[in-house]
């Protein structure tokens, strides 16, 4: 049985890399003891802002066996999205993860292929695929699976390629050989804390979501509070500051996923062109994009708030 656990784990990892995933690690589907008090404290301090959905399914966020009956293993995967081309620094900025096609669709397609492969090659394996749309603590599971460590900015970081990647999971009822956790390599560095334009990273590993530019420009549906005027650093959708300043991201390399290649207009538009954006052009540039989540009116709200 032990041989099969290792054999099947290696089989899954090999196929994951063939499908284009950057890395794959495995951990035991169990209760996340360390994360439980952290999550409870974060919620009690209202650091989730108006993301009230974070208050739901507390137990499921901490125990994958409540999401998948008979779950034995969590297969964590990463997919690089670091772009070769970037927007000019003088324009209104979009987080790099949103340059291309909505990652939910891209990754879910790959995950379904991987699950089908497992069921075809190994047998009657039950499970579910997860891409940032269910109560799963992605970064915690990825760290437990040895794919990196959770940095002071609460992003998963690897020595090999930094942090510009998506995280996804397969939770399955197959017992697999698990991977060991890696060590933390942030050391005494505080660049992410020091650089955050709104002070959202209040201390190491404590990110006040209600102050985060990504929250303000994407999740928040009301008006952006005046206290953040002049502090959004030209970000009109999301924010990459804490990743851009991270020393480990000097090792980031461009992705090879065609579906993540940006529309030329997204890369080249000036501030004036963004201000004159029509709904028709919005739909053309962001067809199948995660930016559709904020809608045309939401993007205009962000641009108006940024001013000149």
From TrEMBL:
It is found in: Cytoplasm. TRNA binds at residue 221. The active site is at 132 (proton donor). One of its GO terms (molecular function) is epoxyqueuosine reductase activity. [4Fe-4S] cluster 2 binds at residues 196, 212, 239, 242. Its EC number is 1.17.99.6. NCBIfam families: tRNA epoxyqueuosine(34) reductase QueG (TIGR00276). Monomer. This is Epoxyqueuosine reductase. It comes from Myroides albus. The lineage of its organism: Bacteria, Pseudomonadati, Bacteroidota, Flavobacteriia, Flavobacteriales.
């Amino acid at each position: 049985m032990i041989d099969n656990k290792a054999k099947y784990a290696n089989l899954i990892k090999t196929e994951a890399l063939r499908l284009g995933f950057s890395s794959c690690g495995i951990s035991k589907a169990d209760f996340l003891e360390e994360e439980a008090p952290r999550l409870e404290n974060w919620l009690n301090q209202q650091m989730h802002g108006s993301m009230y959905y974070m208050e739901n399914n507390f137990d499921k966020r901490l125990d994958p066996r409540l999401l998948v009956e008979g779950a034995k293993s969590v297969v964590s995967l990463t997919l690089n999205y670091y772009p070769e081309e970037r927007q000019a620094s003088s324009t209104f900025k979009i987080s790099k993860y949103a340059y291309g096609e909505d990652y939910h669709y891209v990754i879910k397609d790959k995950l379904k292929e991987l699950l089908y492969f497992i069921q075809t090659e190994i047998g009657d394996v039950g499970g579910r695929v997860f891409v940032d749309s269910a109560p799963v603590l992605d970064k915690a599971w990825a760290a437990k699976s040895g794919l990196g460590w959770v940095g002071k900015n609460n992003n998963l970081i690897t020595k090999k390629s930094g942090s510009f990647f998506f995280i996804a999971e397969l939770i399955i009822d197959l017992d697999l050989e698990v991977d060991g956790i890696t060590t933390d390599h942030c050391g005494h560095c505080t660049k992410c804390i020091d650089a955050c334009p709104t002070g959202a990273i209040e201390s190491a590993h404590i990110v006040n979501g209600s102050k985060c530019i990504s929250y303000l420009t994407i999740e928040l549906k009301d008006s952006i509070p005046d206290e953040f005027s002049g502090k959004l650093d030209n970000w009109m959708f999301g924010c990459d500051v804490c990743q851009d300043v991270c020393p480990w991201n000097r090792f980031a390399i461009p992705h090879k996923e065609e579906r993540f290649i940006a529309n030329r207009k997204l890369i080249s538009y000036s501030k004036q062109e963004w201000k004159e954006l029509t709904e028709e052009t919005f739909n053309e540039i962001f067809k199948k994009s995660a930016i559709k989540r904020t809608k045309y009116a939401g993007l205009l709200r962000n641009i108006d708030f940024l001013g000149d």
